[in-house]
Amino acid sequence: MLARPRNWLALVVLTSGCASGGEPEATDSLTSPVFTNPSGDESTTDVDPGATTTTGEPEPTTTATVTSDTDDPATTTSVDPTGPQTTGPDLTTSGTTGEPVDPCPRVLTVVPGDVLNVRPTPSTAMAPVGTLGDGVIVDVLAIVQGELIDGDDTWYQIAGNWPEGYVFGGFVECTQDEPPGDDGFFLPLECGTSTTITQGNNGDFSHMGNSAYAFDFSLAMGTPLVAIADGTVSSLYADVKPGDPCYDGGGQECNPYTNYVTLLHGDGTGSVYAHLSAVQVSLGQVVPRGTVVGLTGSTGWSTGPHAHVARQENCGSGFCQSIPVVFADVPGDGVPDTGEMVTSQNCP
Length: 348
Prior knowledge:
CATH topology of the domain at 79-175: SH3 type barrels
Distance between the termini: 28 Å
CATH architecture of the domain at 79-175: Roll
Strand content: 25-35%
Low-confidence stretches: 1-32, 34-57, 59-100
Number of helices: 0
CATH class of the domain at 79-175: Mainly Beta
Helix content: under 10%
Largest sheet: 9 strands, antiparallel
Radius of gyration: 22 Å
Structural class: mainly beta
CATH superfamily of the domain at 79-175: SH3 Domains
């Protein structure tokens, strides 16, 4: 089902910048199918497009290292209080077998520059349970009747990291395409998490030299960061604690005091996750893709909570030369730019 133009598209809140201090902020209405508050905090403010969060290239002085030989409800109609009313999809038949073929096994989100709310019921009456970015493909569990919006009451129950999740049909279209496979590298965010890149590759503040291919993700304090691919913890630093001088960030003098984790991957490359408020893995631990390695923070040279993540060479220490990475769950060329919103499909 193709998404049709809506005269109420004012419900869509465009996100054009990064919040000060590395935390995404946006306006959002609980009655909108579109949700632009990845942190989940219902109290939001307008985004300040003039503020960005940046990071230096920290070089902690103390590391532990493992080396490797390999490199409004009133508008709701047709909603059954005991549960959504499933409407049978128009099934077609296939060739000579006569077996039914599901015409809508998956949906593709169509919300350029925004994210789409996932609701616990087919209605805007309740707070979102998640979000999906533009161009994300998810499996359809059922097509149901829900809240009537501009003459359309079609909602899709979708698979995901929630007990039940529904999206409004006006911002998705049916597709036979498959989501990204398990191979390659994925965003360092839990499945379904959306946020903005505050500094991409070759950033003019600090992403140059060793950090030329790094990414800064605008994330609230304590957001889980996950492995971008299967790996083994090769080094970490977790000595900076609440109350320490560089725990809440600082200038270049705080460069050596950045909590971080590095992983060594099967292809001989590594990845680094920096400015953590807490490290949640141990040295030598095998970490499957999508596993939490730490929580975001602002330790070290930092102007606010965010995450600094990069794929890098394996040099046997915490911070090595960064190298290009293509994320399987980023549409287009797989390399997000500064200011771009991304949504993780790093779903173990």
